Amino acid sequence: MRVKFQADADLDGRILRGLRRAAPEIDIRTAAEAGLTGLKDPEVLRIAADSGRILVSQDRRTMPAHFARFTSDARSPGVILLREAIPISTAIEELVLIWNASEAEEWVNRIVWIPL
Question: How many CA atoms lie within 13 A of 51 on its CB side?
Fold first, then answer.
């Protein structure tokens, strides 16, 4: 099955716009489209999981611990965290690569930092 992404509310909008320009066929839902704005991490993870979408976030401080708790008793499509100071172009390239070169099943219950 093809990878689908869910943008967290803290994801830089330039990454979303650039990703849609670079590969308009990628299925990425914005935080606004999913109603994530203002929600706490556990709820964000639940919404992404319920929709079968890998969460893409820049929340390096709290998301890893919430993800660990979430996956202790639930299944997650996965989380991709962007490293601090990652160039926008690198983030876009890595997400396009993940979308092109992997299947959704490869990411289940995994948290990955990019650049890889």
Answer: 21
Task: Please tell me the least confidently modeled range out of 73-77, 82-86, 100-104.
Answer: 82-86
Our separate counts of H helices and E strands in the chain read 5, 5
Q: Amino acid letter at 72?
A: S
0.90 exceeded by pTM? yes
56: left (phi over 0), alpha (psi -120 to 50) or beta: beta
Look up residue 72 and give its two tokens: 């202790």
What is the structure's pLDDT at 68?
97
Q: Assign 3-class secondary structure to 2-49.
A: CCCEEECCCCCHHHHHHHHHHCCCCCEECHHHHCCCCCCHHHHHHHHH
Half-sphere exposure of 55 (CA within 13 A, CB side): 33
Q: Thinking of the domain 5-114, which architecture would CATH place it in?
A: 3-Layer(aba) Sandwich (3.40)
- Give the pLDDT of residue 49: 98
Residue ranges of domains in the chain: 5-114
